[in-house]
TrEMBL record, chain A:
Lineage: Eukaryota, Viridiplantae, Streptophyta, Embryophyta, Tracheophyta
Entry-linked InterPro entries: PIG-A/GPI3 (IPR039507), PIGA_GPI_anchor_biosynthesis (IPR013234)
Transferase as UniProt keyword: yes
GO function term, MF aspect, one: phosphatidylinositol N-acetylglucosaminyltransferase activity
Protein name in UniProt: PIGA GPI anchor biosynthesis domain-containing protein
Keywords: Transferase
Coiled coil: none
Any single GO BP term: GPI anchor biosynthetic process
One annotated Gene Ontology cellular component of this protein: glycosylphosphatidylinositol-N-acetylglucosaminyltransferase (GPI-GnT) complex
Automatic annotation (TrEMBL), chain B:
GO CC terms, sorted: glycosylphosphatidylinositol-N-acetylglucosaminyltransferase (GPI-GnT) complex
Compartments where found: Membrane
Coiled-coil segments: none
Pfam families according to UniProt: GPI2
Annotated protein name in UniProt: Phosphatidylinositol N-acetylglucosaminyltransferase subunit C
Keywords assigned by UniProt, alphabetized: GPI-anchor biosynthesis, Membrane, Transmembrane, Transmembrane helix
Top-level taxon of origin: Eukaryota
Length: 463, 303
């Protein structure tokens, strides 16, 4: 087994991030990879991102801070995933690994076929591999059973795994049959420089509740359909009277996001004649999320399942009080009102949130978020995982095959076969194109950017 | 952004808490696993304890329908062997139609003349349509050898039995909640194709018409009739099934000894071995639930 020379220097890692999901596509995983890479670059590591081509964006691109991105010319075929070919990506992954003198491969997201393939090839070539799981999965339906088997295959041989929450760790350990000590919990963070609260405190005469999410079943759009009219009924707009010494508050909703359930929400709005109290914005580009958030007082998240909800962090960073389902351990108890995914309970939670709202100071909340979540902290914690992964001993093919064999009566044997073929193909490639023929990229040291610039360039990078 | 909560720099580390915020907890690595790990996991929460007798009773529906199909095959065999003539077949059709209607109306909650006339009109259209099409069915498969027809018919019947909806009825009975599924529709179509294939082997047009009518009556409406009987009274359902099974076994016994023993074996397998097997397999049930599961909505989504 040959290993890049960069292995000797312990301090500076050379990391290849692999996922099907990266900018210009948008979502939690894309965000995570971008910010983590930026912060790792600042820590002095070399980071290269590999993803598939998006539209005509194919080839090598540079992003802020000298982040090099390989858009591999493979077309996505389903939900931004590349076609699983097992070995099709081996030559290009090998070339990138050698060209960039990579020491460690870090794959993201369990649905990403590119990530699974890259981790498999990387392990075959003797590189260390780390995997981050961003999602939760059940155990009952056919899709989950298949995904869990694929995950088991990949994780059987990765050196360390990272999960974004404690629930996610429990889930991953069960799904992939890993020892829990191999799984690290490193939550996502939020770019507090980008999500700043409104400079002036909004008046509390009219309370604005903001919802920003894709309007799909999993995000609890059906709960919103039940909750919004009930809240509007509890806080009627028309009557202003003094009762028990306090004025009745007015409540307005702003719903950002698009999806199949948008029709239902609009129907609900028509049926209850709430056109003046429920504003539907449609899809909100991520760059505008902050400006929508700061126009509200309370952020409402009704998700039915969530590995780690970044939207809550963004809202809290903008100084909004959050009412959420399924968001345990994400924020301190005084910054969030938790509810069960049940309409009555959510209405109660919103009532409670409106009651405690006057005590919330957005600026204080923002400062607290700054201390609680930071991508730099995430990068430092991930660095520890990389160190651990690199300390793992090198194993030969036989030892690795033995581990695969324990993955299941039939699956184990299939996994072994897949790995043996991969190993043979790799050796064939070595003969066909020896690694000394692959040109290595020269080192370019870019001046370090200031943290403020990261978020400024962030919006440019998306397009 | 550079700040990071370090906690108290006291020598004794704070107890580890299951939190996502605040960065790495002092004194604990990120892969720290404490005893609360997986404590919210629930195993086999929704497992239904099954009762042998109940499963056996439920399996009666399957053996009942199995017998219905075997009876149809018997009638086909007799017709092809010219044991049953055209007139007796037409009489059989009429008798089945009459008794079917009788059962439907006796088990219905309330009789309605409107529904009856609606049914009669539909049946009238159906029969006349079939009569007009009979010459086409008669010559439909002339160019295909008989062996292929038998093989195909057997295959289609197996598909039919395999995909049949034993719990409900593909023809939607009044008051049924669910729409028929795709598989039950495929099953129904397989049976109809099988009937057409068999009918096309018959010598006269009237025979083709009679056998088609018979097969369609049974395949389309017998699930409806048995469903109604079952809904009306479970005891009656059991008696009816028992009668049907005995009749079928008797008929098959006179036809072929080997087929008789095969059918008997199959019926025993369905009503006794399979339920026992199902209950035995319950102990391998391994269902995992936990906080990662998608929440179930506690209300119905009204589209």
């Amino acid at each position: 087994m040959e290993l890049p020379e960069a292995m000797d220097e312990r301090k500076r890692h050379r990391i290849l991030m692999v996922s099907d999901f990266f900018y210009p596509n948008f979502g939690g995983v894309e965000n995570h990879i971008y910010y983590l890479s930026q912060c790792l670059l600042k820590l002095g590591h070399k980071v290269v991102v590999m993803t598939h081509a998006y539209g005509n964006r194919s080839g090598v691109r540079y992003m802020t801070g000298g982040l090099k991105v390989y858009y591999v010319p493979w077309r996505p075929f389903l939900m931004q995933n590349t076609l699983p070919t097992f070995y099709g990506t081996l030559p290009i992954i090998r070339t990138i690994l050698i060209r960039e003198k990579i020491s460690l491969v870090h794959g993201h997201q369990a649905f990403s076929t590119l990530c699974h393939e890259a981790l498999m090839h990387a392990r075959t070539m003797g590189y260390k591999a780390v995997f981050t799981d961003h999602s939760l999965y059940g155990f009952a339906d056919v899709g989950s059973i298949h995904m869990n088997k694929v995950l088991q295959f990949t994780l059987a041989d990765t050196n360390q795994a990272i999960c974004v929450s404690h629930t996610s760790k429990e889930n991953t350990v069960l799904r992939a049959g890993l020892p829990p000590e191999k799984v690290f919990v490193i939550p996502n963070a939020v770019d507090t420089a980008m999500f700043k609260p409104a400079p002036e405190r909004l008046s509390c005469d009219e309370i604005v509740i903001v919802v920003i999410s894709r309007l799909v079943y999993r995000k609890g759009a059906d709960l919103l359909v039940e909750v919004i009219p009930e809240v509007c009924r509890l806080y009627p707009n028309v009557i202003h009277f003094i009762s028990f010494g306090k004025t009745c508050v007015k409540v307005r909703f702003i719903v950002g996001g698009d999806g199949p359930k948008r029709v239902r929400l609009e129907e609900m709005r028509e049926k209850n004649s709430l056109q003046d109290r429920v504003e539907m914005l449609g899809a909100v580009p991520h760059a505008q999320v902050q400006s929508v958030l700061i126009s509200g007082h309370i952020f409402l998240n009704s998700s039915l399942t969530e590995a780690f909800c970044i939207a809550i962090l963004e809202a809290a960073s903008c100084g909004l009080l959050t009412v959420s389902t399924r968001a345990h351990q994400v924020l301190p108890d005084d910054m969030i009102v938790l509810a069960e995914p049940d309409p009555n309970d959510m209405v109660q939670a919103i009532k409670k949130a409106i009651y405690i709202l006057p005590k919330i100071d957005p600026q204080v909340m923002h400062l607290r978020m700054k201390s609680l979540y930071s991508w730099h902290d995430v990068a430092r914690r991930t660095e520890v995982v990389y160190d651990r992964a690199l300390q793992c001993s090198n194993e030969n093919l036989l030892e690795r095959l033995l581990r695969y064999l324990t993955c299941g009566a039939w699956a184990g044997k299939i996994f072994c076969l897949v790995m043996i073929i991969d190993f043979l193909l790799w050796h064939l490639l070595q003969l066909w194109q020896p690694s000394k023929d692959i040109e290595e990229v020269p080192e370019i040291v870019l001046p370090h950017h200031q943290p403020e610039e990261m978020s400024q360039n962030f919006n440019e990078d998306q397009h | 952004m550079e700040t990071r909560i370090e906690g108290n720099p006291s020598p004794t580390p704070r107890k580890w808490r299951k939190l996502a915020y605040g960065g790495m907890q002092p004194g604990y690595d990120d892969n720290y696993t404490d005893e609360s790990f997986l404590e919210e996991m629930v195993m086999n929460a929704n497992v239904m304890k099954r009762d042998m007798l109940k499963v056996m009773q439920d399996s009666i529906s399957i053996s009942q329908y199995l017998c219905v199909v075997v009876l149809v095959v018997c009638v086909w065999t007799y017709t092809l062997g010219s044991t049953i003539g055209e007139t007796s077949l037409l009489l059989l059709d009429a008798g089945l139609l009459g008794s079917g209607f009788l059962v439907l109306f006796l088990t219905a909650k309330r009789l309605s003349l409107n529904l009856l006339s609606h049914y009669c009109l539909n049946i009238g259209f159906f029969i006349s349509g079939l009569y007009v099409l009979a010459p086409i069915y008669h010559t439909l498969t002339r160019s295909i050898s008989s062996d292929s027809i038998w093989a195909l018919a057997v295959l289609l019947l197996i598909v039919h039995l395999f995909l049949h909806d034993y719990s409900g009825s593909t023809i939607r009975p009044p008051g049924a909640l669910n729409n028929p599924t795709l598989t039950s529709n495929i099953s129904l179509n397989a049976s109809i194709v099988a009937s057409v294939l068999i009918a096309s082997r018959l010598p006269s047009r009237l025979q083709v018409f009679a056998i088609m009518l018979f097969s369609l009556q049974v395949f389309l409406f017998s699930p409806l009739v048995t469903y109604c009987i079952k809904k009306y009274s479970f005891g009656l359902h059991l008696c009816f099934s028992f009668g049907l099974v005995t009749m079928t076994l008797g008929l098959v016994f006179t036809l072929h000894r080997l087929l008789f023993s095969l059918l008997l074996g199959l019926l025993v397998f369905v009503t006794a071995v399979c339920p026992y097997w199902l209950i035995k397999m319950q102990e391998y049930k391994f269902e995992i639930n936990g906080p990662w599961d998608e929440a179930k909505l506690c209300f119905d989504i009204k589209e």
